[in-house]
Amino acid sequence: MSDRERSSGNGRLLMGISWAVLLLGLWLWGRQVTDVPPGMSARTTGDVAAVGRPLEVELPHSAEPLGEALPQRVDIPAMGVQAPVVARGLDGHGAVQPPPFDQPGVVGWYAAGVKPGAAGTALFVGHVDTETRPAIFYKLSTLRPGDAVRVVRDDGRVAEFTVDDVQVLARDRFDAQQAYGPRKPGRAELRMITCGGSFDRDSGGYTANVVVNAYLTGSGP
Asked: Which residue windows are transmembrane per the record (predicted)?
């Protein structure tokens, strides 16, 4: 998500609008509206192309879910990202709190949800840019199936995920079930979300969300 959303002078309102899709998705997610056909992808929206799951990409088998442990850092080599992870909850309007605006290099984890590496879908959110420079998830839409995502946990283990789906979902056609539901029940999955599409100066927000899914394929010390 972007710090540009503060620029209209109605930052609190615009932040609520920008993250409303997360609130809707989490509400449905908590009510177990979760069945999503594997490989389901939305059309691209003019952001860097969402590639879905190309048939020529051979992905590894999923690994057994790990026990629960708190995330401390996320490493995404293809993006050149090594970032701390901070727990986030819901704000007074019931929307997910994004990472603090003055910490654009931090990734937020929805702490009331699944812990990364455990069975289910863990949720990471991050800003795409600030008013002056790119933020931590600026290159999220450039990820491709097969790319690695590593989450360092407080039990001393590293949960190793593999990207299997990249989508750009227009906000006016946002499908919470598609965005938040697990791709395959029983797997440990990681969903990473930021703003996408184009910046709409009238509303003070972006026109789409980039949604990246990854699943657990290994672990290490």
From this structure: 12-30
Q: Which CATH architecture group holds 3-220?
A: Beta Barrel (2.40)
Query: Which is nearest to 179 in space by CA: 147, 149, 210, 148?
Result: 210
Give me the phi and psi of 6, to 5 degrees please.
-90, -15
Residue whose token pair is 């001393």: 156
> Which residue, 214, 204, 168, 171, is CA-closest to 24?
171
CA torsion sign, 146 to 151 to 152 to 158?
Answer: negative
**Half-sphere exposure at residue 190, Cβ-oriented, CA atoms within 13 angstroms:** 30
pLDDT 10s per residue in the chain (221 long)? 555 544 443 343 334 334 444 554 554 444 433 333 333 333 333 344 444 555 577 999 999 999 999 999 999 999 999 999 999 987 776 656 788 888 999 999 999 999 999 999 999 999 998 888 899 999 999 999 999 999 999 999 999 999 999 999 887 776 777 777 889 999 999 999 988 877 767 766 777 889 999 999 999 99
Looking at the DSSP bridge assignments, the partners of residue 122 are 190
Cα distance between residue 36 and residue 62, in whole Å:
17
